[in-house]
Amino acid sequence: MVAHLEFYLEAAVAIVLVFAVCITLHEFGHFYVAKKCGVAVPVFAIGFGPKLCRFKRGGTEYSVRLFPLGGFVQMAGEAPQEAWFPVGQPVAFRVNEFGEIVALGDVKDLPDAEVGTVRKADLTDALEMTIQTAQGVRTYPVRPYARVMLNARSSVPIVEKHEQVVGKPLWQRAAIILAGPVMNLLLAGFLFSAVNTYTGVPTTTIGTVESHMPAQAAGLRVGDRIAQVDNQPIHSWGDLVNVVGRNGYRNGQPQPLHVVAVRNGVAQDVTVTPKMVDGTPIIGIDAQVSHNPVHTVPAGFSALGRDIALTIHGYVGLFVHHQFQTLSGPVGIAHVITQQLRFGFWNVVAVAGALSLGLGLFNLLPIPALDGGRLLFMVIELIRGRRVDPEKEGFVHFVGFALVMLFAVVITYRDVKHLF
After folding, report:
1. pLDDT digits (tens, 9 = 90+) for 406-418
2. Is 27 a known active-site residue?
């Protein structure tokens, strides 16, 4: 019983860490590029909910929160700043000795402040608000970095347009959006490379030569590096397997293969005629396995490229052939993590890599509310020469978010049903 409890506790920790790392690094991608582009980033949070700890640096509040599944980054001007204060809404505000607004918020969050009704707000270009109070209607300048109270203890600044996302050129806004998925793909490549470094990857150097097989008869030895087969360069063990399988059998008969092997720095030309085993041409060698990052990192990113192609092909099947039964939501992914934990830590790392890859590519789909949906609006902006109205774009993203959440609920229900 205790062993079962320990395992499920480890599984819970693994699930939290996998989701938290993949999502937080996605948000870090947005954060890092936004900062480099000069966008103010008031908040970067790991987790959701109440803050467990926090500190401020460089105009950003960094916090760790109670629920560790993911994280978020808040960028100035991602949505119009005036959207916080719709016309006709009551607002509490404080002004300094120069008549500039220095704090805004709900009446309950700004005690002893002046209270009025918003008549007009321009917090993108002019940084001013027109407010009706008991003394009449007046337009106030808003001081840069005036605080907007989200609640009694939390606030974000109002910044000038050059520090807002909306104030940046199209290419910088696109770079900020792309940074999240790109970070996920890079993470996947590094995780695949880490797994390869632990397990090892086959090289083009011969590790074993089987007795009484064609390779031994041709004079190939352990330590030989296969450089070419039938004038085709061999860069990986997969290349060798493919060329032998393709050229080693034709018209019902094994075909001789011209092999160039490098031995002690000297090229050796040999001819090997494969032996047919269960319909497959075999020459009787196995690869030397390497744990050297020089070999394992390129193999990891090669696997990333292959898996990207397979995932894109899967998305085509998903939408063209309606293969929605292949999808898994958070519950299904958590179940896979739990199962792989039984086989060891590195299996969980491999799952984390696959999840990060999937998260990166999924976010690039041109669906409103996803990064790909935002990029789609930028393409429209590029074509028409002006930006889509932010309120209309925001509404489309809101509808898209609602549909994505509804779809997630359906997938989660199906995953739970399959578990029981």
Report:
1. 888 888 888 787 7
2. yes
